[in-house]
Amino acid sequence: MGTDSGGGRGGRSGRGGEVCTLPLLPLCRRGGGDVRGGCRLLLWLTILAPTPGAAVAQNNPAALTGPWRAALDLAGGPLRFRVEFATESGTTTGLVCNADRCDRFSEVTPIGADSVLLGMADYAAGIRARVAGDSLVGFYRNVGNRGPRTIPFRAARGRWPVAPPGGALTGRWDATFHPLERPSPRILELRRTERGLEGTIVSNSGDYGLFWGRAEADSFSLAHFDGSFVYMLSGTLDGDTLRGIFHAGLRTQTPFVAVRSTGRPHLTPPTEVVSADTSGPFQFAFPSADGGIVASDDPRFDGKVVIVDIFGTWCPTCHDAAPALVDLHRRYRDRGLEIVGLAYEVTGDSAIDGALVRRYRDKFGIEFPLLLAGVNDGESPAATQPQLAGPIAFPTTIFLDRTGRVRHVHAGFYGPATGAAHDALVESFREMVEQLLEEEQE
Question: Cis peptide before 185, with omega less than 30 degrees from 0?
Answer without folding.
Answer: no
